[in-house]
Amino acid sequence: MNRITLVLADDHPLLLQGLESTLISKGFDVLGTASDGSAALKLITEFNPDIAILDIEMPLMDGLTVAKYCMGKGYETRFIILSYHKEIEFIARAKSLNVSGYLLKEDALEEIEACIREVANGGQYFSNAFQLKDVKFAQSSLEKVEALTPSERKILKLIAAGQSTREIADKLFISERTVEKHRSNVIQKLDLEGKPNGLTTWVLQNKHLLK
Predict the structure, then answer these.
(1) Which of 1, 17, 40, 153 has the fewest CB atoms within 10 Å distance of its CB?
(2) 42: buried, middle or exposed (CB in 10 Å: 19+, 13-18, 0-12)?
(3) Which pLDDT score is estimated for 132?
(4) Are 103 and 80 in contact, with CB atoms under 8 Å apart?
(5) How far apart are CA 150 and CA 153, in angstroms?
(6) Positions in the chain whose pLDDT score sits under 50
(7) What are the CB-based long-range contacts (under 8 Å, 24+) for 87-90?
(8) What is the pTM of this model?
């Protein structure tokens, strides 16, 4: 059986070194390491590893941007994101890009082998620290956005940019009444009925899902 090939990227030298040593000792084939997103992207495009393990926050390009670029170009590499962020919005953003794994850095050395093997088998893996309900909530939010029409998502992006109903209507060359109708449909689809300023609040909290 061929060994699983990896590329690692993190801008914290000690964590990167520790991760590399741990994975080599467990029999994985580490093809290269990087301390910034640009170098990570170069390694992935050069070696096309089975899995790339990327820090969510790095100089030049963050891990999610690298993953999005590679997936858009059709690379078969699967992605595991390392992060300090436990908030649901980060899980949702990772899911929106269809990354295969999301590990908290505090749990990385303990869970990394199980994560890699699950991802290599075509599955997804999120740190055990995350509650199942949080992952399901993130998935539900993503599915609701994906169910919106292109016009509805465009209007949400303009709301996120702080534009009023009149400004949106002028920009899209439609009537204010049409904008309000779209807003009403979106509120219904997102289950926001009866919440004062519910749509605006939702948009501000979920901008990451609209990218």
Answers:
(1) 1
(2) middle
(3) 59
(4) yes
(5) 5
(6) none
(7) 88/134, 88/137, 88/138, 89/138, 89/205, 89/206, 89/208, 90/56, 90/208
(8) 0.70
